Amino acid sequence: MGLLTGISRRAWGVWALVVFAACAGSAVVLLAFVPGLERRRALARRAAGAIFRLTGTPVEVSGLELLPPGPCIVVANHASYVDGVLMQAVLPPRFAFVVKNEMDRMPLAGFLLRRLGTEFVARFNAREGASDTASRTPTHYRGV
Fold it and tell me: What is the DSSP letter of 101?
């Protein structure tokens, strides 16, 4: 890796961090005041999409037309927290997230996730987490 390549990668990394902070920060502030779950999810979708556009990160999506119109589960075996931002950017606003309980205690992320109708589950026991998720009323599917 040449010197210029290393510098350009670091510069892009700083730019990506600034873009993420600006988009996520703006979204958190706006989500505090925007009424209605559907509107908040649409706003979060636009903010997440802006992160990819402003950083020049190409996103290719295929198969959205295969998602059923009713309740369904989309699973990501994610390697980073970017997957959540990506899913927020590309999935229709009717989709909600199920995330580990620990995220509810993270100041900004927890607030943002609660405002988006996220379900928080315990991950200590696979069966307990699955039954916790299954027992919840799917309010995020009604009218969204």
Answer: G
- Cα 142 vs. chain centroid, distance in angstroms? 20
| Ramachandran category for residue 62: left, alpha or beta (phi over 0 → left; psi -120 to 50 → alpha) | beta
pTM: 0.77
In the chain, where are the structural domains located? Answer: 3-141
Strands (E), 29-68: none
Rounded Cα distance, 115 and 59, in Å: 25
Residue 107 in contact with residue 72, Cβ under 8 Å? no
3-state DSSP call for residue 126?
helix
Confidence at residue 144, expressed as pLDDT on a 0 to 100 scale: 35
